[in-house]
Design a protein that fits this description.
Blueprint (H helix, E strand, L loop, with lengths): L2 H6 L17 E2 L2 E4 L2 E4 L4 E12 L2 E11 L3 H15 L5 H4 L2 H17 L1 H12 L3 H28 L4 E3 L2 E9 L2 E5 L7 H12 L3 E5 L12 H7 L5 E4 L3 H4 L1 H5 L5 E5 L2 H9 L8 E5 L4 E5 L5 H13 L9 E7 L3 H13 L2 E2 L7 E3 L5 H16 L3 E2 L7 E2 L2 E2 L2 E4 L6 H4 L6 E7 L3 H9 L2 E2 L1 E5 L3 H11 L5 E4 L15 E2 L2 E2 L4 H7 L1 E9 L2 H12 L13
Parallel strand pairs: 1-5, 8-9, 8-11, 9-10, 11-12, 13-14, 13-23, 14-21, 15-16, 20-21, 23-24
Antiparallel strand pairs: 2-3, 4-5, 6-7, 7-27, 12-26, 17-20, 18-19, 22-25
Length: about 550
């Protein structure tokens, strides 16, 4: 079948959906507040899948359920529940011993694993992620929880002793920040959201959790697990339009830490609403325009493979995706030819189909935006290099390889966050460096080549522009033990397993002059376990 015909006939009839992946709508009416699943009788948001089905009247997006559209009133009730549970740091959760909090997380993880198939199915149907990638997101999240628990145990052991310096006895441990508002992204609504929720909880914070649209239904199978695993008010969920339910939370001044993954524009608007900016701690994962710099001696087979996965995994809807390619003029013709051939070999289809790589996209407005980017690039001299590039069908957009790209084009500076690959030819290595210097973004970059002198110079230039430089490999987040951050408008704060534990806590010190009386006081407190903070207990 020709490519255009395949795109045109991409979507299935209702009866063609495999039984094991068929989906019954999830009409959610519950939200979690103060340890109770409260019923909602008000307006709801209908949730449409990126998967369309063929009907007698044409293609139609499949309705997969609905979720509550809460108001400011419910939002503030949820906030009060989290605030009361924290109790100015004196609530049972922040005062709880670390080992006990870990037990609650382990109980939750056990229940979470029992709902694996439901969550994976929701990831496929709600955001169009392929079945293998949905499985990977779930399993990686479980691994992240276990890794964070192990890191906390190690941190607890390291801080269990006393330090004596300059006649002062001290113990340094970490204490929670307070109430954390966690807002995850639509591309990794489970994994990326949990990379802030889990460390927040382990460090003794209470959480208000807001999932994105699309992606809100992902949490539904886990609400009961949260309810059963944590004391009332420790984990709370809200649903609805951000300006109606998030703005009141921020402007109340009761949010102590904001964890948000999305655009810098929204992050800045949220931050400005807090009445006491110095009291708001922020952890942001924001925009990116990651560049690949492909030198004339690059291994083209390896480079093509890495650029395909780097630019088009999950349709390029990743902050770490490769979003602009600088290719040396001596190899650019061969490169774009081979890249176009590689794109043509990618499987397109529904998320459950074997070996599928390009799937429908969850936001129909994104299809129009990508189409506009391609048309703008063509108007300024770019050509679509690959067959059928930019062809759309409802929620599906076929990858478009654009060349030659120049600074007049929107795709040169805007983060496309989708399957559009702009390619720029260069002769002087200063050209891509200049681009990186002038860019508003500084997440990551990739270098492909063999000349160690050039690569070394590029590394020294780029490490002051981006937070991670990848050699002969695509940009990526993992492993989770590596720092994940960015420069400029790409991030605020650092998230890795260990860094996240630090991000959602504050170093606190108990100190006393080294006198006989003070030594006796400290010994008695420690010996008789009178304090959970001032203690030499540690977790094995």
């Amino acid at each position: 079948m020709k490519l255009l015909e395949k795109i045109d006939s991409l979507f299935p009839d209702e009866g063609d959906i495999p039984r094991e992946f068929d989906f019954k709508p999830v009409n959610q009416t519950e939200y979690l507040v103060n340890g109770k699943l409260r019923h909602w009788d008000g307006p709801v948001q209908q949730v449409l899948s990126p998967v369309c089905v063929r009907t007698s009247s044409g293609l139609s997006q499949k309705i997969i359920g609905s979720h509550p559209l809460l108001t400011e009133k419910e939002s503030l009730i949820v906030l009060d529940a989290a605030s009361n549970a924290y109790g100015n740091g004196m609530g049972s959760w922040p005062a709880m011993h670390t080992e006990e909090r870990i037990e609650h997380l382990e109980e939750f993880t056990g229940q979470m694993k029992e709902r694996r198939s439901e969550v994976v199915n929701l990831l496929m149907w709600e955001i169009g992620k392929s079945y293998p990638d949905s499985l990977s997101e779930f399993d990686r999240t479980v691994d992240y929880i276990n890794g964070t628990i192990n890191a906390l145990k190690s941190m607890d052991r390291d801080s269990s002793g006393f330090v004596i310096k300059e006649g002062i006895i001290g113990q340094i441990r970490r204490a929670p920040r307070g109430v954390v508002l966690c807002m995850g992204p639509s591309n990794y609504p489970l994994n990326e959201t949990f990379t802030t929720v889990i460390p927040s909880l382990l460090m003794g914070n209470t959480v208000v959790l807001k999932l994105p649209r699309p992606g809100s239904l992902i949490l539904y199978p886990l609400l009961e697990a949260f309810q059963k695993s944590f004391p009332g008010g420790v984990v709370n969920t809200i649903y609805g339009e951000g300006r109606k339910i998030i703005s009141p939370l921020i402007s109340s001044g009761k949010i102590d830490s904001l964890a948000y993954i999305g655009t810098s524009k929204v992050a800045n608007a949220l931050k400005r609403q807090h009445p006491k900016l110095n009291r708001l701690h922020c952890s942001f994962g924001l925009d990116a325009k990651n560049a690949a710099i492909i030198l004339k001696d690059a291994d083209l087979e390896l480079t093509i493979k890495e650029c395909i996965t780097g630019a088009l995994s999950y349709n390029g809807q990743r902050c770490t995706a490769l979003k602009i390619l600088f290719v040396h003029s001596k190899i650019v013709d061969s490169f774009i030819k081979q890249l176009a051939e590689a794109i043509s070999k990618l499987e397109i289809g529904m998320p459950w189909e074997n070996n599928v790589f390009i799937t429908p996209m969850p936001d129909p407005q994104k299809i129009e935006y990508l189409t506009e980017l391609v048309k703008d690039a063509q108007a300024h001299g770019a050509e679509i290099i690959n067959d059928a590039g930019g062809t759309k069908n409802k929620t599906f957009f076929y990858p478009a390889l654009l060349y030659p790209v120049n600074s007049k084009m929107r795709v040169y500076r805007e983060e496309q966050f989708g399957p559009v690959i702009p390619v720029i030819s260069f002769n002087d290595i200063e050209e891509p460096i200049k681009y990186m210097v002038e860019s508003n973004y500084g997440l990551q970059a990739s270098i492909f080549g063999k000349d160690t002198h050039i690569i070394a110079n590029l590394i020294d230039s780029l490490v002051n522009q981006v937070a991670r430089v990848n050699i002969n490999s695509q940009c990526q987040r993992g492993p989770d033990s590596f720092p994940f951050t960015g420069r400029k408008d790409s991030a605020e704060g650092t998230l890795s397993i260990l860094d996240a534990l630090r991000a959602f806590s504050v170093e606190s010190v108990v100190a006393a002059k080294e006198t006989d009386a003070n030594r006796a006081i400290i010994k008695e407190i420690v010996r008789e376990n009178k304090s959970t903070f001032l203690s030499t207990d540690f977790i094995l």
